């Protein structure tokens, strides 16, 4: 059972949790190990429940998904968190990503895509949907800088690394970036690893945020 992905569900709607449970438990390589109806309950239970990936709703009573995600990331063995937003684009999603979430998806994501996202996050990647990234950051365009805000660590990036960072921020996958620059996927992974090391960031999602916050990429109208 060591290779089974342990999933924890957090949503204030019991029917939603039941649906996710049926979906996750139908897979041979994953199972639901716990549930919570709000962020506070989730933080309490996850401290005593070993899990790998958390599916976290954003809007919940008592403690919302943003703060719950932030608190979970302070745990010694923090699980990966996938934030689930409403179709209308939840205003808390961007804050949740900055709080440490490994990705975000719309609640109406097809089941196969959700299962794939769980596997991707568990393997160390991050889930950044191009369409969701675009809509999310357009929503926050007014809060983004009007001019590029250079960070010292960006100055350490090579020209190619900057190009790769821009495409990561735009939501392209490693395969798409490799095709764009005529590189191997292994080379793209190497570039991303070096970018993470030089910027001191945790994962791909943090690079998306960095790209927009520094003005390397801007939301399109």
UniProtKB/TrEMBL annotation:
Keywords, A to Z, come to:
DNA-binding, Phosphoprotein, Transcription, Transcription regulation
| The UniProt record lists the keyword Transmembrane | no
Determine the domain of life of the protein's source. Bacteria
- Cite the HTH luxR-type domain residue spans from the record: 150-215
Q: Where is the Response regulatory domain?
A: 6-122
Q: Which Pfam families match?
A: GerE, Response_reg
Indicate what this protein is called per its UniProt record: Response regulator transcription factor
Q: Point out residues bearing the modification 4-aspartylphosphate.
A: 57
Q: Give the Gene Ontology MF terms in alphabetical order.
A: DNA binding
Q: What biological process terms from GO does the record include?
A: phosphorelay signal transduction system; regulation of DNA-templated transcription
Q: Has the keyword Transcription been applied to this entry?
A: yes
Which SMART domains does this UniProt record tie to the protein? HTH_LUXR, REC
